[in-house]
Amino acid sequence: MKRILAVTLPLLASMALVLLLGASLWSIAGSQTPVNLPELLAGKMNESGVNHPVTAVLLNFRSYDTLLEIAVLVIAGITGISMARTASLEDPELRTSDSLLYALQRWFIPLMLLLAGYLLWAGADRPGGAFQAGAVLAGCGVLMRLGGIPLGFLRPGLLLRVGLGLGFAVFLLVAVLSAMAGEAFLAYPPGMTKPLIITIETVLTFSIAMVLLALFVSAPVNDAGAPGEDDS
Amino acid sequence: MTPSLLYAFAGAGLCGIGMFGFIQLRHLLRKLLAFNLIGSGTFLVLVGLAQHGQGPDAVPQALVLTGIVVSIAATALAIVLIRRYFHLSGHTSLEADDSDSGQGGAE
């Protein structure tokens, strides 16, 4: 009886949630929106410095979100590293060596690096941009890590710190400098928009890849003798 | 009723499934997955609802893109924390006794 109640109550609660959400969705969908955002955006596109609306919103019109996002990422990365069991994130003992992976990544890594560069560049006028490129770059790093390639920059030190903080630091620097030059905080000076956006996207790519890779690497590894953890 | 609205309703459904899983499941990784399901449902609602009236809208799409990146980082951090917790305590759920685990419990 108690067990049935323990299943039924959450079931009823979540069904009520779905019904409530559905009803409010229905009423929102039926009402007229006061602002036509796509039209507003299309009217401002040639001020944004890029040709793709999503990139324009991310890095120009709502760059506050992106700035705070990279801040969240850096904090998550630092927390992850400080939670790691191992003193060094890049220990020769932690490398695996698998000949199949090694052969595979000789083909894959150049291609993935190329793809990351393309995605970064494509963000200006089609889907793509810093986050996609950073994710591909991080995947590349994960593959290298699994294949046993030494990743010296993951050792605690200057390179790791710079890599984690670079994107946020450059973004914040641009924001503060443009504020000091007389514009609003995070408003790029006219004429400099495109180069600034490309610079920020590039450093963001590196930092995002670095954070994701650090989070992957810092999951505690298998030397603790814990049950079910050391059979790899 | 447009296809975009269907996405929004699917998102609401995902929110419900995720909420049920989040309450009901014991294993921390399952809880994390259920929580991610709620997040994905929210993204679907945001994009689908905005797309319903006036075609593709870049503003919610950009917000959802930001949200996806943050949720990836948060998930990875949660996994690091869960593994650390498992190493320290040996438990996979927050309750100390796993003996009375119900359906889909801690096994």
UniProtKB/TrEMBL annotation, chain A:
Q: Lineage in the entry?
A: Bacteria, Pseudomonadati, Pseudomonadota, Gammaproteobacteria, Halospina
Topological relation to the membrane, as annotated: Multi-pass membrane protein
**Name recorded for this polypeptide:** MnhB subunit of Na+/H+ antiporter-like protein
What family does the entry list?
Answer: Belongs to the CPA3 antiporters (TC 2.A.63) subunit B family.
- Segments passing through the bilayer: 67-87, 107-124, 130-146, 158-181, 196-217
Keywords (alphabetical) are: Cell membrane, Membrane, Transmembrane, Transmembrane helix
Please give the GO cellular component terms listed in this UniProt entry: plasma membrane
**Compartments in which it is found:** Cell membrane
The organism is Halospina denitrificans
Q: Which residues form the Na+/H+ antiporter MnhB subunit-related protein domain?
A: 104-212
Question: Pfam family of this protein, just one?
Answer: MnhB
UniProtKB/TrEMBL annotation, chain B:
Would you name any one GO CC term? plasma membrane
Q: Does the keyword Disulfide bond apply?
A: no
Q: In which broad location class does this protein mainly occur, judging by the first location in its UniProt entry? A: membrane
Entry membrane topology: Multi-pass membrane protein
Say if the entry is tagged with keyword Cell membrane: yes
Q: Which residues cross the membrane?
A: 6-25, 32-50, 62-82
Where, per UniProt, does this protein localize? Cell membrane
**Signal peptide annotation:** none
Swiss-Prot/TrEMBL keywords: Cell membrane, Membrane, Transmembrane, Transmembrane helix
Q: What Pfam families has UniProt attached to this entry? A: Oxidored_q2 (PF00420)
Among PANTHER family, the record links this protein to:
ANTIPORTER SUBUNIT MNHC2-RELATED
Family that this chain belongs to: Belongs to the CPA3 antiporters (TC 2.A.63) subunit C family.
Q: Which protein is depicted? A: Multisubunit sodium/proton antiporter MrpC subunit
